[in-house]
Amino acid sequence: MATWVEPVESETDPDAPLKSELAKRWDNNVIAAFEGDTFAPKLLHRAHPSYTASSDYTLEWITMPSEVVQFGEFSSGGAATGSVKSTLWQFTAMRGGSLRITSDLRGAGGAATMLVYVDGVLTHTSTPTSSGSFVNATFDVGFSDSSHVRIDLVLNYSFSSGGGTATGDVQNMRLLAGGLGVYRR
Length: 185
Description:
Layout: H1 9-12, H2 20-35, E1 57-61, E2 69-76, E3 80-93, E4 97-108, E5 111-118, E6 121-125, E7 135-143, E8 148-159, E9 164-177, E10 183-184
Antiparallel strand pairs: 1-9, 2-9, 3-8, 3-10, 4-7, 4-9, 5-6, 5-8
């Protein structure tokens, strides 16, 4: 790994001669910056540490504390079976790592489920809840540099010929980590 060496002011004056030592230092400094040397200026990709799943920091509240957000509703006067899906949150990771995703879900008249996708692949599924009470779902989700992470909420319903109403609610959805990293929504 290359080591960052601070430029010497006398070597970078406009009238100073260009010597091979200075050119070699510039060459090594570019490599050191890309390799993330401790003393080198930070490039955007290396500017922050990786995420680590933990409850130390709340990175983002997706639904505000105690705010109940209805993500799905379906009513029918007759027989019906199906699902209502809502993408609640998604981001592209600039650094790899892991996040703790936590939420409280409630399904009434249908089953509410949280799904987590990393790069289009389903990686986590919560236990469906249809009790009418909020149930916590928590996942530690790992991802790589440039991974796309998406959180979907699904309400599955099935009514007999008498019909019915199904609703799915979420509250306290947040992302938690042990270190602050970088992502873009």
